[in-house]
C-alpha cells in the first residue's frame, strides 16, 4: 500500500501544478505589465518621431528611424521598434511616414530682425527691381505718412545705375528731391554698405563738394563735383546723426524680432549668430528671453569700429558674456571690418580693380583700419578669450585678417579660439592652408555661389575670370577648413537654408524660374548635399561653441530638429529648395507646423 502511494505522489504534485499554473502565469503577466508600465512612466517621452529617415550628423550613428525627446533633450535615437518603450499616455507621437529629420538648421552670420523693421515701419525696397520702382515707393510712403520728419528705408541695389562706360556711381540725390525735398530721405542699400540720401539729408549733415570721406569710405560725386547722394562704407557715418531722427522704440524692435523668429522657424531654423550695432539688440533679446518669448538659440556679437580702443572693446564684450550665457542667448564675439564690398569698390583686393570701377588704374580698395591698429585690436581681443568675426570680401582683406590672427597666436599662444572670417568672396590659394593651420572658421554664404544679383557688378569691377572664380568652397573644404553655412540676411533678402543647400550643391540659382538658365558659377567648387547639411547644422554649432548640446541628434543633446517632406539626399539637387518644411522643433517643442 505504501509503495502504491509513493508511486502516485508525483502524479498528485503534477495535478496541483496544473491547477496552480494559470494563477502563476497570471501573476507573472501582471508583474510584467506592472514593470512595463513603470518603465513607461519613468522613461515616457514628451515627443516621439518614428518611421522616418533621420540624419543625426553623428559619425557613430549617422542614421536612425526614430527619436524621442523629454525635458527639452533627446533621450533616444534608434529604431521605430525600440522607441515604443518611450511612448506613454501623454507622449505626442508623430508618424513621419518616411519623411526626413535633420538637426535644426542654423545660420552662422545673419542680422536680425532682418527686413522686418523695414517691412513694418520703413520704406521696403527689397522686392523691387528698378529705379522707377524705388522712387515710386518713396513717393507712396510720403503720401501715406505726411507727418513724418524723416523717411528711411532699405533694399536698393547698385545694378540699375551702371553707366554706358561700365562705371557705377549709384543713384542721385536729385531723383529723390523730385518726390521728397522738405524732409531728409536716407535709404540703405541691400548690402548695408551704401546709403542714398536726398539734398535735405546732405544739407543737414553739412556734406558739400569739399567734404572728405573717412578712411575706407567714399563720397560719390556728380560730374560738376557736387555730392551725388551716395555715401559708401565709413562715409555713411556722416549722415548718422540725421538718420537718428528715425529711432525705433524697444517695442517696435521686439515686434520685428518676433516676426523674424516666426519666419525663420517656418524655414526649419533653430539657431543663429547675429550682430549688434547701436540698437542694444542683444539687451532686447535678453528681455524677450526673460519674457519667455525667445525660441531660437542666439550667439550675439558686437560690432567694433576703428574709433574704439582695445580696452573698450574687451570690457564691453566681457560684461556681455557674463550677463548672457544661457541656453538661449550667449555673447562673446566681436565683429571687425577688414574691408567693404566689391560692388561698392571698397573691398580690398591684391590685384587692382578694372577701369570700369571708375577709380583709376591702380585702385585696390582699402581697410577701414590702420594695419597696426587692426593688429593690436585682434591681439587684444584674442588675449581676452573673445572670439573674432572678421568681415573680409576681397583676398587682400582675407590676407590681412589671417596676418592679424597669426600675429595674435604668436603673441598670446594657441588656444581654442575658433576665430571666424566671413564672406571670403576671393582668397589666395596659399591662404587656404593658413586658415586650416590657424583653425579659422570660414563663415560662407552659399546663396552667393551662383551668378546672382551681385555677379554682374563683380564682373565689371574685377573682370570675368576673377568674378567666376569667387567662393572656392571645394578648395576650402578639402583643405580641412571648417565651413559654417550662413546667409548674411538681409543683404541676402531670401535666407531659407534649403535654398542655401541647393545653391551650395548646384552653384546655380535655387529659384524655379531661373534653374534652367545658365547661371552657374564655378561648378567645380560645389559641395555635396551631406557637406552642406553639415555646414548648416553641426558646423554652425561648433562655431557657436555649442557642439556639446546642439548641431547633431544624440542622446543628451537639445531636441532641436527639422522635419522635411522628402529626403533631400535622394532627390535631384535642383528640387531641394522646393522641399516643404513640415515641423520645426526647438527644445522638444513644436514651434512651426506646416
Please mark out the parts with pLDDT under 50 across 5 or more consecutive residues, or reply none.
1-24, 26-41
CATH topology of the largest domain: TIM Barrel
Q: Strand order, main sheet: write it out.
A: 8-15-16-17-18-19-20-21
Count of helical segments? 19
Mean pLDDT: 92
Relevant CATH superfamily of the largest domain: Metal-dependent hydrolases
Indicate the CATH architecture of the largest domain.
Answer: Alpha-Beta Barrel
Biggest pleated-sheet summary: 8 strands, parallel
Strand content: 15-25%
Describe the protein's architecture and organization.
With 594 residues, this protein is an alpha/beta fold. The chain has three domains: 2-106, Urease, subunit C, domain 1 (Roll), CATH 2.30.40; 123-243, Diaminopimelate Epimerase, Chain A, domain 1, CATH 3.10.310; 247-548 and 556-593, Metal-dependent hydrolases (TIM Barrel, Alpha-Beta Barrel), CATH 3.20.20.140. Helix content is 34%, strand content 19%. It contains 19 helices and 24 strands. The protein has an eight-stranded parallel β-sheet with strand order 8-15-16-17-18-19-20-21. Helix 12 (395-412) links the parallel strand 18 (387-392) and strand 19. Helix 8 crosses helix 9, helix 10 runs parallel beside helix 11 (371-383) and helix 11 packs across helix 12 (395-412). It starts with a helix and ends with a strand. The model is unreliable at 1-24 and 26-41 (pLDDT under 50).
Amino acid at each position: 500500500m505504501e509503495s502504491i502511494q509513493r508511486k502516485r505522489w508525483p502524479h498528485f504534485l503534477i495535478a496541483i501544478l496544473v491547477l496552480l499554473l494559470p494563477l502563476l502565469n497570471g501573476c507573472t503577466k501582471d508583474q510584467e505589465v506592472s514593470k512595463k508600465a513603470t518603465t513607461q512612466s519613468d522613461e515616457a517621452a514628451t515627443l516621439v518621431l518614428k518611421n522616418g529617415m533621420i540624419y543625426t550628423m553623428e559619425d557613430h550613428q549617422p542614421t536612425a528611424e526614430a527619436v524621442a525627446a523629454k525635458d527639452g533633450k533627446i533621450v533616444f535615437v534608434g529604431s521605430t521598434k525600440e522607441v515604443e518603450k518611450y511612448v506613454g499616455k501623454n507622449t505626442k507621437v508623430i508618424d513621419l511616414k518616411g519623411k526626413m529629420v535633420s538637426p535644426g538648421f542654423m545660420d552662422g552670420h545673419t542680422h536680425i530682425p532682418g527686413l522686418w523693421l523695414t517691412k513694418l515701419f520703413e520704406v521696403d525696397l527689397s522686392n523691387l527691381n528698378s529705379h522707377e520702382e524705388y522712387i515710386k515707393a518713396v513717393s507712396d510712403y510720403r503720401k501715406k505718412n505726411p507727418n513724418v520728419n524723416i523717411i528711411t528705408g532699405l533694399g536698393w541695389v547698385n545694378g540699375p545705375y551702371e553707366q554706358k562706360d561700365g562705371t557705377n556711381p549709384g543713384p542721385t540725390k536729385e531723383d529723390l528731391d523730385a518726390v521728397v525735398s522738405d524732409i531728409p530721405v536716407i535709404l540703405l542699400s541691400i548690402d548695408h554698405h551704401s546709403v542714398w540720401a536726398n539734398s535735405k539729408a546732405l544739407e543737414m549733415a553739412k556734406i558739400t563738394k569739399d567734404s572728405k570721406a573717412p578712411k575706407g569710405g567714399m563720397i560719390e560725386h556728380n560730374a560738376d563735383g557736387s555730392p551725388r547722394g551716395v555715401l559708401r562704407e565709413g562715409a555713411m557715418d556722416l549722415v548718422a546723426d540725421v538718420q537718428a531722427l528715425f529711432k525705433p522704440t524697444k517695442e517696435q524692435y521686439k515686434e520685428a524680432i518676433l516676426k523674424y523668429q516666426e519666419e525663420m522657424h517656418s524655414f526649419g531654423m533653430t539657431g543663429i549668430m547675429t550682430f549688434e550695432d547701436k540698437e542694444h539688440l542683444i539687451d532686447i533679446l535678453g528681455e524677450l528671453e526673460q519674457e519667455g518669448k525667445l525660441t531660437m538659440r542666439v550667439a550675439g556679437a558686437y560690432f567694433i569700429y576703428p574709433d574704439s580702443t582695445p580696452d573698450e572693446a574687451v570690457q564691453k564684450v566681457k560684461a556681455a558674456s557674463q550677463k548672457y550665457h544661457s541656453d538661449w542667448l550667449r555673447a562673446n564675439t566681436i565683429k571687425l571690418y577688414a574691408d567693404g564690398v566689391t560692388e561698392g569698390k571698397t573691398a580690398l583686393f591684391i590685384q587692382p580693380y578694372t577701369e570700369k570701377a571708375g577709380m583709376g588704374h591702380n585702385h585696390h580698395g582699402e581697410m577701414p583700419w590702420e594695419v597696426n591698429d587692426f593688429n593690436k585690436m585682434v591681439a587684444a581681443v584674442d588675449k581676452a578669450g573673445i572670439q573674432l568675426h572678421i568681415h573680409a570680401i576681397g583676398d587682400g582683406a582675407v590676407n590681412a585678417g589671417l596676418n592679424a590672427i597669426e600675429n595674435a597666436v604668436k603673441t598670446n599662444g594657441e588656444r581654442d579660439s575658433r576665430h571666424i572670417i566671413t564672406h571670403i568672396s576671393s582668397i589666395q590659394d596659399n591662404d587656404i592652408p593658413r586658415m586650416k593651420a590657424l583653425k579659422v572658421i570660414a563663415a560662407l554664404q552659399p546663396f552667393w555661389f551662383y551668378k546672382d544679383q551681385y555677379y554682374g557688378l563683380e564682373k565689371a569691377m574685377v573682370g570675368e575670370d576673377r568674378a567666376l572664380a569667387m567662393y572656392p568652397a571645394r578648395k576650402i573644404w578639402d583643405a580641412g577648413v571648417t565651413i559654417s553655412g550662413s546667409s548674411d540676411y538681409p543683404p541676402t533678402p531670401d535666407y531659407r537654408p534649403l535654398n542655401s543647400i541647393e545653391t551650395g550643391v548646384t552653384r546655380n540659382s535655387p529659384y524655379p524660374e531661373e534653374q534652367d538658365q545658365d547661371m552657374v558659377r564655378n561648378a567645380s567648387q560645389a559641395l555635396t548635399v551631406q557637406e552642406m547639411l553639415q555646414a548648416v547644422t553641426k558646423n554652425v554649432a561648433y562655431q557657436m561653441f555649442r557642439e556639446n548640446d546642439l548641431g547633431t541628434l544624440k542622446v543628451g543633446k537639445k531636441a532641436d530638429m527639422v522635419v522635411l517632406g522628402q529626403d533631400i539626399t535622394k532627390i535631384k539637387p535642383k528640387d531641394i529648395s522646393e522641399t516643404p518644411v513640415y515641423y520645426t522643433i526647438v527644445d522638444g517643442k513644436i514651434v512651426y507646423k506646416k
